[in-house]
Amino acid sequence: MVNGLPQHYLQRALRAQVYDVARRTPLDPAPKLSARTGVELLLKREDLQPTFSFKLRGAYNCIHQLDEAGRARGVVAASAGNHAQGVALAARELGVRARIFMPRTTPEIKVQAVAALGAEIVQTGDDFDSACVAAVADAEASGARFIHPFDDEDVIAGQGTIGVEITQQLPEPPDVVFVCVGGGGMAAGMAATLKAICPETRVVGVEPEDAASMKAALEAGEPVDIGATGMFADGVAVRKVGDTTFDLCRALLDEVITVSVDEVCTAVRLVFEEVRAVPEPAGALAVAGALAWSKQHPEAVRPDARWVSVVSGANVNFDRLGHVVERCALGDGSEALLAVTIPERPGSFLEFCQILGQSSVTEFNYRHNGTADARVFVGVRLREPVQELVEHLDTASYAVTDLTDNEVAKLHLRHLVGGSLPLDEREVLVRFEFPERPGALLEFLTVLAGRWSISLFHYRNHGAAQGRVLAGFLVPARDDEAFAAFLEETGYEHRDESDNPACRSFLTSAMTPSRKVKAV
Questions:
Q1: Which end of the chain is more exposed for a tag (fewer CB within 10 A), N or C?
Q2: Which residues pair with 204 in a beta bridge?
Q3: Are strands 306-311 and 335-343 parallel, antiparallel or unpaired?
Q4: What are the strands of the beta sheet with 360-365, ordered from one edge?
Q5: What single DSSP character describes residue 53?
Q6: What is the distance between the alpha carbons of residues 272 and 254, in angstroms, rounded to a whole number?
Q7: What is the mean predicted confidence (pLDDT) over 178-201?
Q8: Residues designated as active site
Q9: Sign of torsion, CA 289 290 294 295?
Q10: Which of 323, 424, 329, 347 is nearest to 386 (CA)?
């Protein structure tokens, strides 16, 4: 017991009025995932809620507490989508007016779902935090109740009902429960109720590597603003966790771990293969966490162990699935991306494929550059660990660079490979990211227009919340400082990739010296 917190939230969860609208979701067996982890892994199916997300629980419990005067003033919320749907449905069922502030980067499927539930929608800002500032200001001006998506005791208690259900659905307490962490509402509520009922159960929070705000808070000893977050798992893209959720998670979570985008994509695919449901990236975080944790803690992997992962939501834009499919093979280690030098002569590709043996080629890209050797970009479906494949090719006298973990290679170069400028040209390669929304690319190009010639431009819109561009500029050495200042003035997130090994392999001449621009 930690200062009575578990019992306090257990009592509030037991009194929570969530079942007027929420389901008691099933705890489904997952034999394929169990085989991968080496333990019995069960899936708590919060994706089966009426709004396809657990958020309905906390939203309804919070709005239900309002008295008649409070309901008359209405409610305001900020959300990237799932909390918005929960508030909208709860407000509709309770006859309360709702106004929802949503980031302009919110997947369209979530915007449409909120509109269908009758709430007024205001789209503003490029992330949750911007929308939240606008929502709080509106609530203060209008007198409406702001329904916080996570840092509210009634919301936390509502999410805690998930933990109560898990203990009621099992004959014995689970050994480990994995829960996704964004602002921390579900993690805090579930940790509190689980620790009150079965204190020996480990509760592990799972965050994306590029939005690990709770991990940063725990390391700092207080909630901290981590700045711009990755938006792939938009449902947990929170820059700063709540004060209340931080206190509860610090006291009650046993551990917080992070997983990569590729690992999340793999989890989305594995959940689909298991139960024929497609979770959103944030919804698959806890499954990705269980897979990662089983490798990190082999001592906890026992045939008699029982783990639970919460599949927390399924509000995914259909066009984002292409990105998931593209990355999941990399995430589970079944595909590798390699830069390989082969002789520039007939039959060399066949010889190379023969050397690969049982590992089949998924991509093969190169451009003839007039030299005796060809630098090729190869995707390989693995039948052995990538390290063994690289050693095998090295033994066969191929020069190999493993690009499997190289973001530029995965995002751009697998779709844009080959071609270098004459040696007397000086090119600087820069990668940009900006919030994806209608008109965003035009705005980006307008800002980029200037005195330096653009020698390369690669842009892909594949349903992600972030627009990504790889651009080349012809910059004389005398202009380095001015060009660095120009990049800062654009206001866009950017990174000089001129010395990136993937770029050096395919977009510049091997004889060209490093041309990285100095920072101002």
A1: N
A2: 178, 255
A3: unpaired
A4: 360-365, 373-381, 335-343, 399-402
A5: B
A6: 28
A7: 97
A8: 55, 312
A9: negative
A10: 329
Tens digits of residue pLDDT in 51-78: 999 999 999 999 999 999 999 999 999 9
SS3 for 365-405 is: ECCCCCCCEEEEEEEEECCCCHHHHHHHHHHCCCEEEECCC
Q: Are 39 and 305 in contact (CB under 8 A)?
A: yes
Q: Whose structure tokens read 């771990």?
A: 257
Q: Is 251 exposed, middle or buried (0-12, 13-18, 19+ CB in 10 A)?
A: middle
Q: Burial letters for 115-133: b for 16+ Cβ neighbours within 10 Å, e otherwise? A: eebebebeeebbbbbbbbe
Structure tokens at 331: 């995430």
**Highest-pLDDT range among 36-45, 354-363, 423-432:** 36-45
Q: Is the CA virtual torsion 115, 119, 123, 127 positive or negative?
A: negative
Q: Record the tokens describing residue 197, joined without a space.
A: 């009922």
Amino acid code (one letter) for 274: E
Tokens of 232: 């792939």
Residue with tokens 């209405």: 74
pLDDT at position 520 is 40
Taking the C-alpha atoms of residue 7 and residue 404, their distance in angstroms, rounded to an integer, is: 47
CA separation for the pair 87, 146 (Å, rounded): 10
What dihedral do alpha carbons 380, 385, 390, 395 form, nearest 10°? -120
In the block, which residue shows the tokens 């909630």? 223
pLDDT at 519: 45
- Dihedral of CA atoms 86, 88, 94, 97 in degrees, nearest 10, equals 150
CA dihedral 334, 338, 341, 347 (to 10 degrees): 40
Residue 514: half-sphere exposure toward Cβ, Cα within 13 Å: 8
CA angle 391/263/296 to nearest 5° reads 75
**pLDDT 10s digits, 253-280:** 999 999 999 999 999 999 999 999 999 9
| Alpha carbon 263 to chain centroid, angstroms | 10
Nearest by Cα to 167 from 40, 47, 297, 10? 10
Q: What is the pLDDT of residues 424-447, one digit of tens each?
A: 678 899 999 888 776 677 788 788
With 0-12 CB in 10 A as exposed, 13-18 as middle and 19+ as buried, what is 476?
exposed
Distances (CA, A) of 519 to 37, 127, 213, 454, 489: 46, 28, 28, 20, 13
Alpha carbon distance 260, 207 (integer Å):
9
Nearest CA among 315, 212, 298, 201 for reference residue 261: 212
